[in-house]
Amino acid sequence: MNINSKLPNLGTTIFTVIGQLAKEHNAINLSQGFPNFSPDFKLLQLVNKAHLDDFNQYAPMQGVLSLRETISEKTESLYGTFYHPESEVTITAGATEAIFTSIAAFIKPEDEVIVLRPAYDCYEPAIELFGGIVVPIPLIGSSFKVDWDALKKAISPKTRMMIINTPHNPTGTLWSESDMLQLQEVLKDTDIILLSDEVYEHITFDGEQHHSVSKFSDLASRSIICSSFGKTFHVTGWKIGYCVAPKALMQEFHKVHQYNVFSVNHALQIALNEYLQSPEHYLELGNFYQKKRDHFLNAIQGSRFEAVPSAGTYFQLLHYGKITDEKDTDFAERLIKEYQLASIPISVFCGSEYNEKFLRFCFGKTEDILDQAVEILHRI
What we know:
380 residues, alpha/beta, Aspartate Aminotransferase, domain 1, Aspartate Aminotransferase, domain 2, 7-stranded mixed beta sheet, globular
């Protein structure tokens, strides 16, 4: 059969490649972003109860209303913007589905989408799948700041969407209030849709605050905001998240969502709604992960790796420029094969032109695993 691929140049995701290589070499896996510890037993009990209470058939397409009401209340409490639970909140099969559905709903052939690199690897293939044109803007230097002049020049009459991510994967940086206000000014008087990936919204450190685009009126009016229960409650395998957006945007989102997944696991929605009634379950998340970040950073002191402490997410970049001139993909592969330690090379999020010496490590692990990893890092 002659197959005319819609994505002829797309290979297997780096997470699958590294994961398979780590398994082959019995490596400690600090690559893909998933915790190696169990979620709160209370949440598991609530899921079990929901199953036993027979919430085992289809949920409503938009999601269980009580959960959407809770999300609306949570969002307004944290960020000051009200999203109507009946028309502006949708439960999704993970944040990735929310991102894919948003792109599918709005991007047509030849539409331009601005993507800030390094960028999570699900954005660009989805844009290309629907005929859109990726307009990449590299973040500046080792601090990964927005190049505002380059961003302004990149906007054209064909610009349909811009994608941002804060707290940022893979760099662990945060958008400041000043950044958001500047973005609001840049996008003012345009019809550009903003897709905001905020899956690590509750994982920030050192007293820093997450600035959701929903806090800024003009940005909120043009934005689809994606969040993740999987990241927040250590249940990445559940693949459940949500998005909020103004009614006009959400109506278009639903046109795709209803034929993409239709609805999401009913029992999990019932359990999550109950669990969210105690805000400490997400408000204390930053402190929980900061202890792990600090443990990891303190332990690598004296090694040849250099680090600027992550401001959010559960990822830490380590700079290896004092160790080798190897390309990050080659060094990451050698770490797995020779030292049995897996990480993610940053260039896979940036394009072929990127040649900085960074690897991304996930510190969302138990201390014994982090200590084993650090012992290896000290030997390199």
